[in-house]
Fold:
Amino acid sequence: MQGRRARLLIEVVDRYIRTRQPVSSRELVTEYRHRFSPATIRNELLALEGEGYLVKPYPSAGRVPTAQGFKFFAEWLLDLAKLGEGPSSVPAERHEVELGMLPDLFRSAATLLAAMTRELGFVIPPPREHMRTSSLFVRRVRPGAVLAVTVSELGTVESRLLPLDLDLAPEELAEAEGFLSRWLQDHTLAESPLGARPVPEGWHSRAAVAALAILRQLAEREPDHGLYVEGWPHLLAELAVRSPEWALDRGQALLRVLEEGTAFVDLVRALGNDRGQEIAVHVGDGSIPELADLSLVSAPYLGGSGVAGVLGPLWMDYARALSAARYVAGRLGALLAAGSTKEEG
Structure:
């Protein structure tokens, strides 16, 4: 859509976001100083209504954007600001990220997004299984069991007690640890050294067989669906514009979805995959009924392995959400990249 009709639709959505009230043709003439007559504007609005972009809540009222109308407006903003080129470059922070600080960092980023937009802010950390391992330690705790401790490139520490059929001598266990350390210098836990291929050359000793068994168990963990969410009072206040009862109902349904996490994280990551290293806007969603009346803006960080974003009603301030998501994702990525570089050094 282009020309006068597109311009009027953008103005209706913009006005509705600012007033939360149905928009009349006369209001558009006054607010945007059109040369078009109210009659001409009414005809265009009627056409937009027929095309599914606007709706009249009752006969004598102005018009309200539909999910289709909000989506058109959000995509227009993306094109206008040329945000589809990916997150802006942000200088790395001077201070390093210490071990154990990452949960607080992700939570603070979500809080910042909520404060900047007055909506629900969320941060999805990079999946553990797709991060490089900077160091690994394997220790025998009893016959048939070892403790494997991994430190990721971002400084996250994970320890797991793993069964091991082979009871290795100390020197064999040290050799197995060496095999694992060398492999994980160039691969992630999600990458198997075998796949459909035969055992790699040099991996036939007892230590190598044990290393492969440990690696398989480390890689077979459940997918990490970490999710940090802040700003519930902001979102509920926004939803209450329609009605307090509706806001409470939608809030409770959304809370269940976010507490489970998997479907929401999968949706956000799918949006990122569709757009590559670009900021994304999603208006309404049929696959997750609880998101049908909501919009989300998401921005990738750290090469797309993590996502930061904003979740709000269809009438949220898209311009503010786009700017906030892009800014916070850029800062978060720069800070984590600096911590990763520190680890490598």
